[in-house]
Amino acid sequence: MDHYIQLGIDHILDPEGLDHLYFIMSFCLMYTIKNLRKIAGLITAFTVGHSITLALAALDKISVNPDLIETLIPITILTSCAVNYWTLLREKDYVVPKGYLIYIVILFFGLIHGLGFSNFLSAMLFEDESIVTPLLGFNIGIEVAQLIIVLVVLAVLSLSDRLIELKKTVRLVLNTIITLLVIQMIFA
Amino acid sequence: MKIKALIFIIAISSLKIINWEHPLKMSFSKLTISIEGQVDIESRIFLDDLTEHMEKLYGLHQADFSSTGSNGTQALQRYLRDHFYLEQSGKKLNLNIYNVSFSKNGLALVANMNVSGRLDVSKNLFLVNTLLCDASPMQVNDIKYHGEHFKLNIGNSKVKIQIK
User: Fold this and answer.
1) Does residue B16 belong to any structural domain of this protein?
2) Nearest neighbour of B20 by CB, restricted to A119, A124, A184
3) What is the pTM (predicted TM-score) of this model?
């Protein structure tokens, strides 16, 4: 089990496979450490989404073209960034987003990312290997990595908000970095 | 204004730090040794990385891994001589590919390999695996034997296997 947990962590934190990390960063950067409950809700929605499709795909209940999934994942990140721009630019100052539609959207995007996770898991499992332990371990690893990312992003933003008054500018810049990195990923 | 400029410069500079290689450089192999000393290895290697490297290394126009006789598989067979083999009592034991197929999602090549002859099950065995480490320094090759996992990479390419 430990082996698969580590693989799940490595999958998210691998410096050469940062798409899932960018997605988590993109929806975290609109909040602060004071919004932990909201962040927890969003992470839960993402976890529920990706767990569903990861399990279904790993158990061969659904099958989606891997190339289509690898195309959709950057689109989810860019969509998240686009929503961030809209939220940041419509107000004069930085305001924490409100509303519940975001939970549905994040859950839906989680479904797509789960299919991406399953591509890796399916490729590495041997035919005579039971799916249960690897699936559970891999998913746990993904959750651990997500928590690490969220804590780091919130800590950095918290520090930045204390040192720099331009909260909106910082978030616009970070959002732009993520957008450019993802665009570069698509066309690389 | 100065702070805005500084943030902008840091943001743009950060773009140059990131390495844009294809992610998740890993292969997975399962080693089985029978009581009589017969070796069987099943390796799962991400097809896109393997194809690109075999084409580059052996000058193939289009690497084909559809059968044991196809050009990609033959190239892989040659490649294994220097990158994936066993050692026992100072003797190198080359792996022979006897079957190739693809993972269900088509992303990985599944290569089944064995060794000519049998091992001495009373002696220690060493396994060397540097598959695709010459293509990327980030490559990690996982070997599973009797429920135990060994991770090999460019800095740690050899592992001692206690035959069970």
Assistant:
1) no
2) A184
3) 0.80
Indicate the pLDDT class of residue B151, thresholds 50, 70 and 90.
very high
Distance CA B39, CA B96 (A): 10
For B100, the enclosing helix (H) or strand (E) is strand B91-102
d(CA A48, CA A50): 6
For chain B, the domain total comes to 1
Residue B38 DSSP code:
-
Could you tell me the residue range of the domain that residue B42 belongs to? 25-161
Least confident of A120-124, B47-51, B56-60, B80-84: A120-124
State both tokens at A59.
């158990």
Interface with A, mutate which of B6, B9, B24 (most A CBs under 10 A) = B24
Q: With contacts defined as CB-CB under 8 Å, which chain B residues touch A126?
A: 28, 30, 42, 44, 144
Q: Rounded to an integer, what distance in angstroms lies between the CA atom of residue B154 and that of residue A142?
A: 26
* Residue B18 located in a structural domain: no
